[in-house]
Amino acid sequence: GNVVLLLKSLGINDLIHFDFMDPPPHETLVLALEQLYALGALNHLGELTKLGRKMAELPVDPMLSKMILASEQYKCSEQILTIAAMLSVNNAIFYRPKDKVVHADNARMNFFLPG
């Protein structure tokens, strides 16, 4: 999604025939375009919308950029920025020292809520 959004923001519209150094599978491009359309970043013609241009300015996954931009409307930007930051680093927020692996894993489980 990020690459497709970036290319669209640079004015490259024909992604199927774009000369990628390492081209992604056709299905991956189609899914990325569908996701961007569902997020409102592309219109029905596959052109970048005003929202899509704003999303392209943020160096995060399109779903996170939409979430960040929408948070302003709901007056929760501070909380959403914290959530987006945590989501963008995956599990890198948890540090497991080799000599305290069991202790670190137990501490991490305190964040787990059974469904």
UniProtKB/TrEMBL annotation:
Gene Ontology cellular component annotations, sorted alphabetically: catalytic step 2 spliceosome
Q: Which Gene3D superfamilies match?
A: 1.20.120.1080
Keyword Repressor part of the UniProt annotation: no
GO MF annotation list: ATP binding; hydrolase activity; RNA binding; RNA helicase activity
Which keywords does this chain's UniProt record carry? ATP-binding, Helicase, Hydrolase, mRNA processing, mRNA splicing, Nucleotide-binding, Spliceosome
UniProt cross-references to Pfam families, sorted A to Z:
HA2_C, WHD_HA2
- Top-rank lineage group of the source organism: Eukaryota
Q: Does the keyword DNA-binding apply?
A: no
Query: Known InterPro entries for this protein?
Result: HA2_WH (IPR048333), Helicase-assoc_dom (IPR007502), P-loop_NTPase (IPR027417)
> Which stretches make up the Helicase-associated domain?
31-113
The EC code for this enzyme is: 3.6.4.13
Catalysed reaction, written as an equation? ATP + H2O = ADP + phosphate + H(+)
Gene Ontology biological-process entries: mRNA splicing, via spliceosome
Q: What is this protein called?
A: RNA helicase
Upper lineage is: Eukaryota, Metazoa, Chordata, Craniata, Vertebrata
